[in-house]
Amino acid sequence: MNERFTVLKTDAEIRARIKELAADISKDYQHIKPENPLLVLCTLRGAIFFSADLVRALTIPCEINFIKVKSYQGTRPAGSPIFEFGEQIDVRGREVLIVEDIVDTGQTMDTVMHNFADKGAASIRIATMLDKPSRRYPHLIGTVVPDYIGFSIEDHFVIGWGLDYNEDFRLLPDIMIYNPDAED
Ligand code: 5GP
C-alpha cells in the first residue's frame, strides 16, 4: 500500500493530549508569579494552532510571543536554521517555554536554545507537539530533549495541524503522514 495521505493522529486525540500537556506544564511552573509570567514563544508558523490551544489551557500567568525559524524545504531539511526574528524579544531573567510543532534533527531547537541562553533567559524548556527522536543528529542526542512531547513518532514526513508541505495542508484538522511520491 502506498497512500498519499495516512491519518497519524486525529484532531480529537491531539486536543485531548494538549489538555494533558497543559496540566503538566501548569504543575511544573506553579512557582510562576504574575510579575514575571512564563514567556511562551511560539515558533511560526507550524506551532500556531498547538500554541494557541496550549496557552489557553494553562492555569499559570503567561505571556505569548512569536519567533520564526526557517529550516525545511519540501520534505528535506534545508541546512542550518535561520533565525528570522526574535532578536528584539527580551528574555533576560525570564522563564521561557519554546513551543514547537515538531523536533526532527534537533538543529532548530539547538539554535534557539543557545540564542536565548546567551541572552540571559532564567530557564528554557521545549514543548513540542511531535518528536521524531530517531532523526536526531548524533551530536544532539541527549542535548536536544524536549521537556513536553505531544506524541513521539517514527520517521515520517507529516502535515496538518499547522504543519505544511511547501505551504500546503497546514489547515488539515488531523495530523497525516504525507507521501508526495504516491500515485493518486
Ligand atoms: P529540525 O531543526 O529539528 O530538524 O526541524 C525542525 C523543523 O523542521 C520543524 O519546526 C518543522 O518546521 C520542520 N519539520 C521537521 N519534520 C517535519 C515534518 O515531518 N513535517 C513538516 N511539515 N515539517 C517538518
Helix content: 10-25%
Name the beta content range: 25-35%
- Uncertain runs: none
Q: Mean of the pLDDT scores?
A: 91
Count of individual beta strands:
9
Approximate shape: globular
Distance between the termini: 12 Å
Largest sheet: 6 strands, mixed
Give the CATH class of the domain at 12-29 and 37-69 and 90-155. Alpha Beta
Number of helices: 3
CATH fold assignment of the domain at 12-29 and 37-69 and 90-155: Rossmann fold
Biggest sheet strand order reads 4-3-2-5-6-7
Which structural category fits the helices and strands?
Answer: alpha/beta
Alpha carbon gyration radius: 16 Å
Supply the key terms.
single chain, alpha/beta, Rossmann fold, about 35% strand
In short:
The protein has helices at 11-28, 48-57, 107-118, and strands spanning 5-9, 38-44, 62-73, 76-85, 95-103, 123-131, 148-152, 158-159, 175-178. By secondary structure, the chain is α/β, with parallel strands linked by helices. Helix 1 (11-28) packs across helix 2.
